[in-house]
Amino acid sequence: MSPQITRDPRGRLAREPGPHVPATGRQVVIIEDDETLGRSAAACIERWGSTAHRLPRPDDDALRRQLSGPVDSVAIVSRDDMVALRYALLAEHLKPGVRLVVTIFDRTVAEEVSRTVPNCTALSMTDAILPSLLASCLAPEYAMLQPVGDDLVGVRREGVATRVEHLPRRALAAASDPCPRSPFGTWFRSLGTSAKALVCSLIALLLAYSVDVALGVLVLHEHWTEAVWNAARTLTTIGSSHAAEHGPGWYKVFSAASMIGVLVLAAVFTAGVVDRFTGHRMTSILGARSIPRRNHVIVVGLGQVGLRLSAWLRDLGVKVVAVERNRQAACLPLARSLDIPVVIGRGGDRFLLERLSVRRARALAAVASDGLENIAVAVATRAVAGDQRIVLRAGGDAVTTESQSLFRIGAVCDFPLIVSTFVAATVLDAELRSVFVAEGRTCALFADDRVLDLGSWDADA
């Protein structure tokens, strides 16, 4: 059934929205604190046959004046949840019942706002960009990948055409790995300084214990059970073998030196154990939070996008390690609770990239909020691992375009384009599941698995 065609107050043709069609002839107010996102969302709304009024960080009086006129919908575009929440509550107070669409990162806040204000739709910028990032990290032949229930919904690129596929949730967990199993040295390099000291002291203590047992059997002619017992007593500084008092001179000199060495090693080992238990470590030597060494994804930048991307990858059975330079980052406790290993450091550091086995990784995703920092990480990674798959969160600005022309950076996900398109479509009542870019075209996936080129929505199309 085709949408009903009417005319708006200005005499322009307008159509009622449907599942795959945005409303036209709407008066939309965009409250913004991000010029790029606001400008892009307004451009989409204008192209699709409605009118957008942009208000950059308006005060109460400016917003009251704007909402006193004819307004069909209000879109609040902000990277700050508290700013977005305040404007949403103010808009609802000034014009009760108006259609509200607000961008909020925090899920708890978003759910509470949607519950309290029924006419408000809370969108997550993170959820809008993640399907494109996930596909670029795991399978470049797909334009987007999105977990839906027990399935993984993907849109496969086929030239200018696209095809929707439903995959098992962990279908992409195991990838072909041409590299042999990582040796001990690779695992050891992935450890931090404290962990290396702990491992080295433990190995040295075990070696000293083994040598003491062997000398007890071969030199002092003890039964092996006595040798094991006496060596343990020596290692724990409780006592030594009585037979050692009658041993040769060289054995006594060697035993004295080994006891002094064991005393030092025991102190280092004890300090390492205490540090592991009392320190707030974001990685472990072994276990779920150990740094993976092959067939993993490195996520640089542990903001909301980096945390959710890491969590999605872990949920899909893909090994992941995150890099964050700020020790006070708000998402670090959440990453620890999710058993996501996090290394504190600068993502563009060559030595850090080598420690994280970037050459053996499936992909590296630079998803920090600073586009220039992401470009620096991408260039450093290309210098260390020339053939590595790199995914870059960028703003579609001139700097990214120029850098892309100079360096073979990798897959670039245009954050403002995808997020603003999703916001504009939602505020015009189109029911999208995801927005992605395929072959230079901005497309949308709907709940019924239909893929549509959003260029067909343009008023002059």
TrEMBL record:
The chain crosses the membrane at residues 197-220, 253-274. SUPFAM superfamilies: NAD(P)-binding Rossmann-fold domains (SSF51735), Voltage-gated potassium channels (SSF81324). The keyword NADP does not apply. Keywords: Membrane, Transmembrane, Transmembrane helix. Residues 7-18 have a biased composition (Basic and acidic residues). Residues 297-395 form the RCK N-terminal domain. InterPro entries: NAD(P)-bd_dom_sf (IPR036291), RCK_N (IPR003148), Trk_Ktr_HKT_K-transport (IPR050721). Pfam families: TrkA_N. Residues 1-22 are annotated as: Disordered. It comes from the Bacteria. PANTHER family: POTASSIUM CHANNEL PROTEIN 2-RELATED-RELATED (PTHR43833), VOLTAGE-GATED POTASSIUM CHANNEL KCH (PTHR43833:SF11). This is NAD-binding protein. It comes from Streptomyces cavernicola.
